Amino acid sequence: EHPVQLGNQVFIANHCHLAGSDGIVMEDFSTLAPGCMLFSGSDDYTGRRLTNPTVPREFIGGPQGTITIGRHVILGAGTVVHPNLTIPEGCSVGSLGLVNRTLEPWGMYVGIPVRRIRDRSQALLALEQELLRQR
Question: Whose C-alpha in 9, 20, 70, 98 is 20 to 30 A from the C-alpha of 40?
Fold first, then answer.
């Protein structure tokens, strides 16, 4: 098993950071704009556990788990994604968004933390089919 799994037509722009020790899955047609940071594991900031990756795993703690980025998801520049959540099919997250929970499909999200501001059009699904027919 590979900690980071990439589908087809995935785009990761410059200056992105994928901390995938606990798994990151990017499904087909997903996009990361410049400077996105995805953390599939994090330290425990409460002081109950040791911190940093130089310490053996049994002494550290904090949230961990696979991040799943669904089909046709686009994350705007500087978006930060916390561990153990899903950004499902069709979501868009505006620049500098903080994703700290699993989202609902086909929504447009903004803010710190993100909130849904409206539905996202599914018209791009027809364009996907047209693209695939041309191949």
Answer: 9
Contact predicate 106/90, CB 8 Å: yes
Q: What are phi and psi of 134, to 5 degrees?
A: -75, -15
Q: C-alpha angle with apex 24: 76 to 30, nearest 5 degrees?
A: 40
**What is the C-alpha separation between 107 and 131, in angstroms, rounded?**
23
Can you tell me which residue has the tokens 């191949």?
135
Record the pTM. Answer: 0.93
Please report, for residues 62, 123, 125, 132, the alpha-carbon distance to residue 129 in angstroms, rounded to integers and kept in the order given.
41, 11, 6, 5
Secondary structure letter of residue 29 according to DSSP:
T
For the segment 53-69, the average pLDDT, to the nearest whole number, is 93
C-alpha 104/C-alpha 127 separation (Å) is: 22
121 alpha carbon, distance to own chain's centre: 20
pLDDT tens digits for range 88-107: 999 999 999 999 999 999 99
